[in-house]
Amino acid sequence: MEWAEVIRNPLLRNLPFKIELTKYGQLLMSPASNKHGMTQGDTIAEIRKRRKSGRVIAECSIQTSDGVKVADVAWASDEFLKKFGDETPYPQSPELCIEIISPSNSKEEIAQKIDLYFARGAAEVWTISEDRKVQYYRAGLPVKRSDIVPKFGL
Q: Which architecture characterizes domain 30-143 according to CATH?
């Protein structure tokens, strides 16, 4: 299955799951909780307050070497958007990709997604735990703060 087929398929609309695609064209579905959705909404609002340029994207699809992965939240600069617009999925990662960790996510899965986002050009990747603790990464390594969204906090 290709990503364009996934987003056009009426049977896959309005599911209570986040959908991703493996490199073999298999669908992956992760259940989404209301807590996850609230953290996603609050993250988007906080980034919008602190970044006056660029765009915040919810459920940002990115073509990776392991299929299409969907960052819960992403921030793309005006330059990125000028180059890629609303292309779906993006052929490279926006500058910032954020994963909100759910109980169904394994540490290995999150580590792999971090690596995949960096391999596609992300400058920063964040993870947000269930208790809303943020871990920032640059060049695949943990760092103390974000350069893209200074003084971010939930």
A: Alpha-Beta Complex (3.90)
